[in-house]
Design goal:
With 272 residues, the protein is α+β, with helices and mostly antiparallel strands. Helices cover 16% and strands 44% of the residues. The chain has a 7-stranded mixed beta sheet, with no helix packed on it. A 4-stranded mixed beta sheet has the order 1-9-8-5, with no helix packed on it. The longest helix has 39 residues.
Length: 272
């Protein structure tokens, strides 16, 4: 009787092992085509891309800047190599962006002169993406445009800076900050959201306040409004660990994050 029970147990165990092996083989067979398909997907970028730029508004004067921005690439491998970059406009070039599925478009480096971007300026970029043992030729027609409106209102006490903020990353007020306690209220247009508001005082000590809160601006040198874009660009993916983002000197966690600086000339910080 014991021998029969042992034989039956061994038979069940053998059958179970065979089923496990068959299931494992089936999983491998199903997984391989999916992996091959994913690896074989060709990279692609938008045929046309508008890159918006900001100027500075310093004491009543428009200060131009250089043009730059990202062209995001779908199905771009982290190990991809981007070569043969050509631009139809001699003032612009591009390179693979660290930590992003994108190429970074920027003004060509030239020690003799600096090219200021113009509203409506164009370039056509062509480049080759090498990944998974294949080469892909991509192109994108880029148009630079002065940045559209971000804020419905930027109210510092009774004064509204929204009109001056349009198309500018910074505005320098000729005067000094109000010495009394004032309410600061910021409202954005669609596709933008305020993250924080900071006051920087002459003693270099920043102070965060809530949107709509009251604060003393005595000895305030600048007000920083930090915000982000909620509408993601075509093919955009979150940055990986290799990304190091900057927005006019300040670090940002992704290209979707930006800041507006309101400076008071009369209370400017002395050079360190």
């Amino acid at each position: 009787m014991k021998k029969k029970i042992i034989r039956r147990k061994n038979k069940v165990k053998k059958t179970r092992n065979i089923l496990v092996s068959l299931l494992a083989c089936l999983f491998v067979i199903l997984a391989v085509p999916a992996a091959v398909s994913a690896a074989a997907k060709a990279p692609q970028c938008p045929k046309k891309q508008t890159l918006e730029f900001y100027n500075a508004y310093i004491s009543g004067n428009e200060m131009p800047t250089e043009g730059d921005g990202y062209i995001y690439i779908k199905n771009l491998s982290r190990s991809a190599v981007i070569t043969n970059i050509k631009s139809s406009n001699k003032y612009y070039t591009a390179s693979k962006a660290a930590g992003l599925n994108a190429v970074f478009v920027q003004t060509t480096s030239d020690s003799d002169s600096i090219h200021d971007v113009k509203d409506g300026e164009k370039t056509k970029l062509r480049f080759t993406v090498k990944q998974n043992g294949k080469s892909y030729n991509l192109s994108c027609a880029v148009t630079f445009k002065k940045h559209s409106r971000v804020f419905k209102s930027v109210k510092i006490g009774s004064k509204n800076y929204a009109a001056l903020a349009k198309g500018h990353w910074t505005v320098r007020d000729k005067g000094t900050a109000p010495k009394s306690k004032v309410k600061i209220t910021v409202k954005t247009v669609k596709n933008y959201k305020v993250d924080s508001i900071e006051i920087c005082y002459k003693n270099n000590k920043p102070k965060k306040i809530k949107n709509g809160g009251k604060v003393s601006l005595k000895n305030a040198a600048a007000i920083y409004i930090n915000y982000h874009i909620t509408a993601k660009p075509k093919y955009y993916k979150r940055p990986t660990a290799g990304y190091r983002g900057y927005f006019f000197g300040g670090t940002v966690k992704s290209p979707l994050y930006e800041s507006f600086y309101l400076e008071y000339e009369g209370n400017m910080l002395a050079p360190q």
